[in-house]
């Protein structure tokens, strides 16, 4: 009792002394062993604590607190299986403790087993109905699997129980943002920061939410604050509260963006280590094609976006276009079948299509390795639905990042990034962790020649009146999501509108909550209200066709039009774009170059951007000539030649494998279309 009193007062060393005295008096004193273990653990003497818990369990194998405490140590050591067996042993002897259920839920979530995690949180709340932490944890789990309305209910319930719980307000804000209630999200983030001013997650997420709706008050001050937060977190090896996908669109130093990605990559390695897999054995490093042998390269694509998603809209034909004499394709789907034509097409055209959405990450990695994959492609990167821990387990000898994430993964276990010379020049290689593979022309593939030929049919064209667009105005357009905009580009657009008589700017409600703010901002810059036109987001086919109703597309330098850029060029709409340094700021320029007309659309400064847009608008014959030439090259230029692009990608894969076979480390290389040895290793 004296030891326990000391422990409660924070006199841990005294508590340890008295617990040991109690054990000297009675060597079968269970609670003394368990409590001594807790005290020892608190002062970092974990091995001694482990010994105490085991002593207690040797006297009473079903001691619930000792089992739970032992499990907690295993959890901290990333020994998830051992921890889970301790918690389950606890629950076999008592169902009155909430901690084992809570900790089991954490393990299930780490392994992607969300249904069992929710069942455990249900038990926590059965035992403690007023546990606000339990409600927030269950809400977080609901949110991760897309059950946002249930998450919102749990967060609100937690706030009703504990109104000062800043975390509940911040998580409620995140759920509101995911469900499109942006103004409610901003209000909840601000409430969280009122309750806890030093709350990096809320500060960073509030900034991103404000960006999404173009709320730019105190923008520079907030970015400085967030950059300071990131730098502190990176320096102390804490997972940054700015996600890599957000960092690509922020005006932060590219080297800092690389550090953010590195921290997230390391976090994926920690998740992978919890599965405690033995190192994988790989296929022998032998060329698959040479004079005496003609084998095939086994290539695996891992993605959560085989379905109705921009990735499948762009890459739909790629998986079936691979030359089956040279490449054996495996697609591993991380998401269940969404029943769409996009999913069906990939399933039908890919040589092997495996739905692994219900499997744990370690089982997926084992399957990939058993399939003897030689080159494994990560089509997600840091995007929704990714399971990058699979790549951290390194089931294949060569691992590659492509398409899903336009930036560096920062991962030591990703060897190559497939890109091109314009998007990722070798002079910028210091902002990438991967070795750069430069495809000819443009790295960004599309499927329009196969799936969107109707756009070229003159009998299927829309009219401006179909969308309430003015027939007599010169229409500039930007169909990018609003988070890609910033005051500098919008001020430039306002200057352009003021300099070009009878002009308008066509934007999308992407999201709708940004419309009112942008209209007010434009008016404050002296732009007439009817010069700003908003329309709703349209379905893919309609979106591409109606793009041609504009006269000139204005790109966002901070984060370019990627899929949207490909859409508008296929529609025959020229653009003005200004590349910066990071990958996401250079994609539109690469798209333009691959049409053969890039020099007429790419500028090198904001002043030149404004002058180019104004001069094209005021010189209609010059703009019409550019538009006509762009429309004329759509069926012949490299940008839309998917088959040619796939052959070049195969050249890249064979080069990667042959470098591996020669015993060299991965290195930067450029793919040559006139490589006549391909696919043989001579």
Task: Summarize this structure briefly.
One of its GO terms (biological process) is protein O-linked glycosylation. This protein is of the alpha/beta class and 682 residues long.
Q: Could you characterize what this model shows?
A:
The model has no long low-confidence stretch (mean pLDDT 95). By secondary structure, the chain is of the alpha/beta class. The strands form three sheets. Strands 5-4-3-6-7-8-9-15 form an eight-stranded parallel sheet, with helices on one face. A five-stranded parallel sheet has the order 12-11-10-13-14. The protein has a two-stranded antiparallel ribbon with strand order 1-2. The chain is 50% helix and 9% strand. The radius of gyration is 29 Å and the shape is globular. Pfam families: Glyco_transf_41, TPR_1, TPR_11.
Write the layout of secondary structure elements.
Layout: H1 2-8, H2 12-25, H3 30-42, H4 46-59, H5 64-76, H6 80-93, H7 98-110, H8 114-127, H9 132-144, H10 148-161, H11 166-178, H12 182-195, H13 200-212, H14 219-235, H15 244-247, H16 254-273, E1 289-290, E2 293-294, E3 297-303, H17 310-315, H18 318-321, E4 327-333, H19 341-349, E5 352-355, H20 361-370, E6 375-378, H21 389-392, E7 398-401, E8 416-420, E9 435-439, H22 448-451, E10 474-478, H23 487-499, E11 503-508, H24 515-524, E12 532-535, H25 540-547, E13 552-554, H26 563-570, E14 575-576, H27 587-593, H28 606-618, H29 620-633, H30 642-661, E15 669-670
Parallel strand pairs: 3-4, 3-6, 4-5, 6-7, 7-8, 8-9, 9-15, 10-11, 10-13, 11-12, 13-14
Antiparallel strand pairs: 1-2
